Amino acid sequence: MTPAEIRQEIIDILDDISPDEDLDNLDDQKAFREQLELDSMDFLDIVMELRKRHRVQIPEEDYGHLASMHSTVTYLEPKMKDL
Amino acid sequence: MYDTIIIGAGMSGLAAGIRLAHFDQRVCILEKHYTIGGLNSFYRMGGRDYDVGLHAMTNFARKGDKKGPLAKLIRQLRFGWEDFKLAEQNGSSIRFPGVELDFNNDIAMLESEIKSRFPDQIDGFRSLCGSLLDYSDMDGDSPDFMRSAREVMAEHLSDPLLIEMLLCPLMWYGNARENDMDFGQFCIMFRACYLEGFGRPYKGVRVILKNLVRKFRGLGGELKLRSGVANIHVEEGKAVGVVLDDGTELQAKRILSSAGTVETMRMCDDITEPDVAKAGKLSFIESISVLDCKPKELGFDRTIVFYNDSPNFHWERPDDSLCDARTGVICSPNNYIYDAEEGELPDGVVRITTLANHDLWSDLPEEKYRAAKVTQYDEAVASAVRFMPDFRSRVVDTDVFTPKTIRRFTWHDNGAVYGAPDKQLDGTTHLPNVFLCGTDQGFVGIVGAIVSGISMANRHCLQV
């Protein structure tokens, strides 16, 4: 997957978790938490959905990398590039 | 071999099942009863639909609200708002002799009521609101969680009558402890009832249950009714599976039980004597009246009335009598603001809930049990009509369910509606792969139970 595809996948997951959110105006550099009403349960869901859909394992100590869209895509790129 | 076996197909078990099945676990929900729902079930009798449990769903939220437990559970279960489609309450009241406080889903109403009835208490009420624990502090770690709610309230309010009045709905809708409440539980219920408020789906609790089951099965989950668990089989300090009442053995990596703390311990075959003293004691009877008119035609538009016939609110099991009708809850499912397309409910209904003693009801021989249902219905209604228009000449049908009925639906010791007073908030047990959800884990009520199932599934069954 290219970074753009990974980004789209994250958007799909966010849309699935929280269909009422407006994701069109998401600022990739800003933290998700500042723009969306996501709590720790929702962050767990992003991790779980990635595992379910792509068998990507994210250890708990790496959850901090999922703060913003930019940091998430950067973190996932090496894990998902061969998918 | 299942990944997770869930005991109980009530709100919490079904919600947990959806979470686990969504994330590809092999899950089986085992239900002892022949129907789903547990404490929040439904039945049909004489051509009419009845709910068990549900008067109102607490934690009301409107479509698009992003905060609060209802929004959270809709997201976590991948539902849409339309799946619950809650109609808002007309408004409810707390009625004590000579004084009444109205409230609705906007806290400003209760505030203005307190301001006019208890003018010298309004600042205290506001400071009490400011001291409430947040939902994020509800895991029990806050040092204030286990404090006495009465004690905390007395730091803010000096009028004992107002304290009793505010406690009355909160204890009625979710307090397993007699006479006092843990402050944490008080905060949960305060938010659920006063800050968020009441709603109801037009078709009652069956809509919610049917949506939960449909989703669970759609994800490949298995649901087995009439499948009571006789034993949780323990080997070398770990559960390896369950044995059903009919002898069937099922294996699982872990077990999530909504049966209750004591009830679950009793199933574990490594425990011989569960500590039954820890079981809850508070149970209810419900006296249902079907009217030949709508309650509002009799001048009754309240959604819920919480009444108490003296300045002191007695929240305890009646020890020497079948029932205690000094306090009660009057609910009319007609008195919600349903969508125009849904229209009005077909029948006018008044439901009255009063405190009852499970053991005394259960000890009655069949004939006396039937007779007691009639006399206790009369007593409950006679008590309630002191706080609402007298509807007795308009009754066309009645039904009563008792602690015995509640026990049959839930299998909880003592027919305890809100479970044990001491909650196991982290959901753990003496076994490393048996966990609790539902009434004895924490939050109560429909939304609370669903959130309990979700959070225990996330915490103990998914992050592995």
What does this molecule look like?
The complex is a heterodimer of chains A (83) and B (464). Chain A has 83 residues and is mainly α. Chain A has one domain (3-80): ACP-like (Non-ribosomal Peptide Synthetase Peptidyl Carrier Protein, Chain A), CATH 1.10.1200. Chain A contains four helices and no strands. The longest helix of chain A is centred in the first third of the chain and has 15 residues, at 3-17. Chain A starts with a helix and ends with a helix. Chain B has 464 residues and is of the alpha/beta class. Chain B folds into three domains: 2-85 and 204-278 and 420-462, FAD/NAD(P)-binding domain, CATH 3.50.50.60; 98-196; 281-410, no CATH class. In chain B, 32% of the residues lie in helices and 23% in strands. Chain B contains 13 helices and 19 strands. In chain B, a hairpin with a 2-residue loop joins strand 6 and strand 7. In chain B, helix 1 (11-22) packs parallel to helix 8 (205-218). The longest helix of chain B is centred in the last third of the chain and has 19 residues, at 366-384. The two termini of chain B are 17 Å apart. The model of chain B has no long low-confidence stretch (mean pLDDT 94).
Secondary structure: elements and pairs:
The complex is a heterodimer of chains A (83) and B (464).
Chain A: H1 3-17, H2 32-35, H3 40-54, H4 69-80
Chain B: E1 2-7, H1 11-22, E2 27-30, E3 42-45, E4 48-51, H2 69-76, E5 86-89, E6 92-96, E7 99-103, H3 107-117, H4 122-130, H5 149-156, H6 160-172, H7 183-196, E8 199-201, H8 205-218, E9 222-224, E10 229-235, E11 238-244, E12 249-257, H9 261-267, E13 283-291, E14 304-308, E15 323-331, E16 336-337, E17 348-356, H10 358-363, H11 366-384, E18 395-401, H12 403-410, E19 434-436, H13 445-462
Helix pairs in contact in B: 1-8, 1-13, 2-13, 4-5, 6-7
How many helices of chain A does DSSP assign? 4
CATH topology of the largest domain in chain B: FAD/NAD(P)-binding domain
Report the strand count of chain B.
19
Number of domains of chain A: 1
Helical stretch tally of chain B: 13
Shape of chain B: globular
**How would a textbook summarize the main sheet of chain A?**
none
Tell me roughly what share of residues is in helical segments of chain B: 25-40%
* CATH hierarchy, class of chain A: Mainly Alpha
- What count of structural domains of chain B? 3
CATH superfamily annotation of the largest domain in chain B: FAD/NAD(P)-binding domain
Mean pLDDT of chain A: 90
CATH architecture of chain A: Orthogonal Bundle
Question: pLDDT below 50 for ≥5 consecutive residues: which ranges of chain B?
Answer: none
Distance between the termini of chain A: 6 Å
CATH C-level class of the largest domain in chain B: Alpha Beta
Q: Please give the alpha-carbon distance between the first and last residues of chain B.
A: 17 Å
The structure class of chain B reads: alpha/beta
In percent, how much strand structure appears in the residues of chain B?
Answer: 15-25%
The CATH superfamily name of chain A is ACP-like
Q: Quick check: average pLDDT of chain B?
A: 94
Domain Carrier (chain A): 4-80
GO cellular component, one term (chain A): membrane
InterPro entries (chain A): ACP (IPR003231), ACP-like_sf (IPR036736), PP-bd_ACP (IPR009081)
GO molecular function (chain A): acyl binding; acyl carrier activity
